[in-house]
Design goal:
Elements lengths: L4 E2 L3 E5 L6 E5 L4 E5 L5 E6 L1 E2 L1 H10 L3 E7 L2 E6 L5 E5 L4 E4 L13 E5 L2 E5 L2 E2 L2 E2 L3 E5 L4 E5 L13 E5 L4 E5 L2 E2 L9 E2 L2 E6 L4 E8 L10 E4 L4 E5 L2 E6 L4 E5 L10 E6 L2 E5 L7 E5 H7 L1 E4 L2 E3 L2 H22 L10 H15 L2 E2 H7 L7 H23 L5 E5 L7 E5 L4 H7 L1
Parallel strand pairs: 6-10
Antiparallel strand pairs: 1-7, 2-3, 3-4, 4-5, 7-8, 8-9, 9-10, 11-12, 12-15, 13-14, 15-16, 17-18, 18-21, 19-20, 21-22, 22-31, 23-24, 24-25, 25-26, 26-30, 27-28, 28-29, 32-34, 33-34
Keywords: Membrane, Transmembrane, Transmembrane helix
């Protein structure tokens, strides 16, 4: 399903098969089609109830459109809960919702999932709308979806998009303000994913600080990738693989426009309002020419840390009991002996992180898996040696002499003879 924005006193859409721009003119009650000259041509009249039209014109700001079935175009009016269906067979426009209150969800992101219209976030009434709502066609009311945990503070502007393949909603880099005098808008760098199956928000991490999301705020979503338009640069972002690619050449200039819409992977928008040409951004084609920029977000390991702390606290009593037992003969695994023997060679020459990954046969795994395997192996060896030889942190981490940001590993100085006797 495709959608886009429309402005003026008209309900506007792009025909999905022909890409022709059409509208329901609310002033003359005619269906109109845009000509190549940017002028509009009358096609045929349509009907709408007088009171419904009066309500629509009074509250109209701008709209989004959807195609729920072959003969219906559904319009939602920004900042309200109004839902209008236009029947292409009968040429009738009809309001189908029963909304009373409005004004709280300007800028909400709307999409279809499993034939249900959803609306996420937005702002209004000097506050942010943090809820996920959906339109129930049976009751003709907007209902709330209740997550199992709390999500982001605000979902307005920034990266907003629903992935049908992932059955998930992604959000981040939104505006946030407290409505104070002379206040600067804060850009949130937290990035979240909402899983519709688990009904749970996941904080994926903090957005790459090298992405210019404060300076450039034009962001679009094509169902699989976000794009960030930065004039002479185009950032193509995959939130699932956590990758950012950068496209840049000497002839392309990327600026935003009005009424964006998507066909397949390509994003279209109207440059300079009604007067400018339709700009297309073929994301997949540009991705093939782009270079790798970096990760989109730094993953959030806080849950793992809290879990590890809880496990350590729970196991503290048992550990103290084991420590005070009569010492038993130490039992080292083959991989542990292999690592200790390597640390003994060449007068305790430090082992780099890359070499350690190869020793532990994890160099082909993901960085997250490598980090976990290294941590657990060194932790096990240090605990065994401390219990048997009363040496605390026998294998220690030191910064690399070539690059202080990198970590090397070695035996604590003065322990070599005891470790040699052990292995």
């Amino acid at each position: 399903m495709e959608s886009a924005h429309a402005v003026m006193n008209s309900l506007e859409w792009i025909e999905p098969q022909t890409s022709v721009r059409k509208r329901l003119n609310l002033e003359n009650l005619f269906i109109e089609e845009q000509l190549p000259s940017t002028l509009w041509q009358k096609l045929s009249p349509f009907t709408v109830d007088g009171e419904e039209l009066k309500t629509l014109l009074y509250r109209y700001n701008n709209s989004r459109y959807f195609f729920p079935d072959k003969q219906t175009i559904r319009f939602t009016i920004q900042g309200t809960g109004f839902v209008y269906d236009y029947n292409t067979a009968t040429s009738q426009l009809k309001r189908i919702d029963q909304t009373i209150h409005s004004g709280h969800n300007f800028g909400a992101y709307q999409f279809y999932r499993n034939n249900i219209l959803y609306s996420v976030g937005g702002e209004g009434m000097w506050s942010y709308h943090r809820q996920i709502t959906y339109f129930d066609d049976k009751t003709r009311e907007w209902e709330i979806l209740r997550p199992k945990n709390q999500g982001p503070e605000a979902m307005s502007n920034g990266f907003q998009g629903y992935s049908d393949a992932e059955n998930a909603y992604f959000t981040g880099a939104g505006d946030h303000k407290n409505y104070l005098e002379h206040e600067k808008i804060e850009i949130q760098r937290s990035f979240y994913r909402f899983d519709f199956i688990a009904k749970k928000w996941d904080h994926l991490g903090e957005i790459n600080p090298n992405l210019p999301i404060t300076e450039h705020r034009i962001m679009y979503w094509n169902g699989a990738h976000f794009i960030l338009l930065a004039r002479d640069r185009l950032f193509i972002i995959n939130p699932v693989s956590n990758e950012v690619h950068l496209f840049r050449d000497n002839s392309s200039y990327f600026e935003g426009g009005d009424r964006p819409y998507v066909r397949h992977d390509t994003i279209f928008y109207f440059h300079n309002g009604d007067q400018g040409p339709v700009i297309s951004v073929p994301v997949n084609a540009l991705l093939k020419k782009a270079s790798y920029f970096g990760t989109f977000y730094e993953k959030d390991y806080s849950a793992y840390y809290y879990g590890a702390i809880a496990c350590l606290l729970l196991g503290l009593g048992a550990w103290l009991f084991i420590r005070n037992r009569s010492t038993k003969e130490i039992r080292l695994e083959a991989a542990e002996i292999k690592l200790l023997k390597r640390l003994l060679v060449e007068q305790n020459r430090p082992v780099s992180t890359q070499e350690l990954n190869k020793l532990l046969d994890c160099d082909t795994k993901s960085q997250e898996s490598q980090r976990r395997i290294r941590f657990m192996m060194i932790k096990q060896i240090n605990e065994k040696i401390e219990l048997h030889l009363d040496i605390h942190d026998c294998i220690e981490r030191i910064p690399s002499e070539e690059d202080k940001r990198l970590t090397n590993y070695r035996l604590k100085l003065g322990t070599e003879k005891k470790i040699k006797d052990l292995v």
